[in-house]
Write a structure and sequence with these properties.
single chain, about 425 residues, alpha+beta, Peroxisomal Thiolase, Chain A, domain 1, ten-stranded mixed β-sheet, two-stranded antiparallel sheet, 16 helices, about 20% strand
Length: about 425
């Protein structure tokens, strides 16, 4: 394999992550990305027109945001000549945007790229069923009053009152026909993870985010202002009073009879955007930039879609092997918290001799990942998981953690619906 040429991270920013509350959120996806991108570009020594391209990961753009990457690029003032495009790799769409930027920088096609991700999951649409679509089609073809009245006679209330819920479709694997939460149930049973352990992990995620907010550790956030003048300055999904007793009252959602996965030990449905500014060594020198870090390796991996939550294990392990590193040789880890069972399953997989031998081809388990190095400021269970943005967010915050603690090297990794994993190795200057 050709040696990986590091790519510099110049800067980054994100919006607050805003929890969906069963109504469309105050901002469209392009609004979120534009607001964070404008603030980020405003503090750079170059004009937006000097970017080589804008790449956006988005799992669910609206019908009003076709090729949302180009829409955002133009709204950011990058001009007509800067290409903007969109990538989609489910939960890792934002991380894929980074990797696509890296590939173009390595090839020499680009030197300065704005890359990140966004999703406004609260605005995921309700869809008509096939029966209702057929009715509309036939109604449009009716030419006489009698024909139209006949079509109304065929209309049944159930056709109108049973819409297809878009976000449920989006969170269901079409090959194995399992919702993402059901794949987390698989991991809980596979590794013997109890409901109490998952709830305890979730409480700790909320505690860490709460502590980080109070300490001002989310400096990457750009506040938003709604059309009504309301200011959104921080992630609003954290429950500062989260407790094991409170979570114990919640009922399983994905397997109501035997399950352990509840809304309380799962990531939240959320709106948000995250950006990183990537540059080649030549661009750093040309614009006299001061990078906050560099990406030194990336990896994608595939695995059984029914156990998709173990994707970080399959993606991060090859990077560790290439660099001769163990789990504890890194100073910090970010693993996206799709579900408590999913992150805990990753930890247990690295500890399990059979899994490491049969699935990873290792002679021995990698060992135990130090909990004190993992998601030190909490994760998606408390912050939320705006699918397209999460992969970029964990890379950005990992760099903030390393710089704050004067550490050097860390790994950001994410599981991906469909049975994949992504990982990024970063270093500070």
């Amino acid at each position: 394999m050709k040696p990986f040429e590091p790519v510099f991270i110049v800067d980054g920013a994100r919006t607050p992550f805003l929890k969906s509350r069963n109504v469309p959120g105050p901002f469209a996806a392009s609004d979120l990305a534009t607001a964070a991108g404008r603030a980020l570009l405003a503090r750079q020594p170059f004009a937006p027109e000097q970017l080589d391209e804008v790449i956006v990961g988005c799992a669910g753009p609206s019908v009003d945001e076709v090729n949302i990457g180009r829409v955002i690029s133009l709204r950011l003032g990058c001009g007509n000549k800067v290409p903007g495009w969109t990538v989609m790799r489910n939960c890792a769409s934002g991380m894929q945007a980074l990797d696509s930027a890296i590939a173009n920088i390595h090839s020499g096609r680009s030197g300065l790229v704005l890359a990140g991700g966004v999703d406004a999951l609260s605005r995921t649409p309700l869809l008509y069923s096939d029966k209702m679509v057929l009715w509309f089609s036939q109604m449009a073809q009716a030419r006489t009053t009698g024909a139209r009245l006949g079509m109304f006679a065929k209309l049944r209330p159930a056709m109108l009152l049973t819409p297809v819920i878009g976000i449920v479709k989006g969170l269901t694997d079409p090959v194995v026909d399992l919702m993402m939460g059901q794949t987390a149930e698989n991991l809980a049973w596979k590794f013997g993870i109890t409901r109490e352990q998952m709830d305890a992990y979730s409480v700790e995620s909320h505690r860490r985010v709460s502590a980080a907010q109070k300490a001002g550790r989310f400096g990457e956030i750009v506040p938003l202002i709604g059309t009504d003048g309301k200011v959104y300055a921080e992630d609003d999904g954290v429950r500062h009073d989260s407790s094991i007793g409170g979570l114990a009252k919640l009922k399983p959602f994905f397997d109501r009879k035997y399950g352990k996965i509840t809304p309380g030990n799962s990531s939240q449905i959320t709106d948000g955007a995250a950006w990183l500014l990537l540059a080649s060594a030549e661009a750093v020198e040309k614009h006299k930039l001061e990078p906050i870090g560099r990406i030194t390796d990336t990896q994608w991996a595939g695995l059984d879609p029914a156990q998709m939550g173990l994707g970080p294990v399959h993606a991060a392990t090859p990077i560790l092997q290439r660099h001769g590193l163990g789990l504890d040789d890194l100073d910090a880890w970010e693993i996206n918290e799709a579900f408590a069972a999913q992150v805990m399953g990753c930890i247990k997989a690295w500890e399990d001799p059979a899994y490491c031998r049969e699935q990873l081809g290792l002679d021995a388990p990698l060992g135990t990942l130090d909990a004190a190095k993992l998601n030190v400021d909490g994760g998606a269970i408390a912050l939320g998981h705006p699918v397209g943005a999460s992969g970029a967010r964990i890379v950005l915050h990992l760099l903030h953690v390393l710089r704050r603690e004067h550490k050097q090297r860390g790994m950001a990794s994410i599981c991906i619906g469909g049975g994949q994993g992504g990982a990024v190795l970063v270093e500070t200057p």
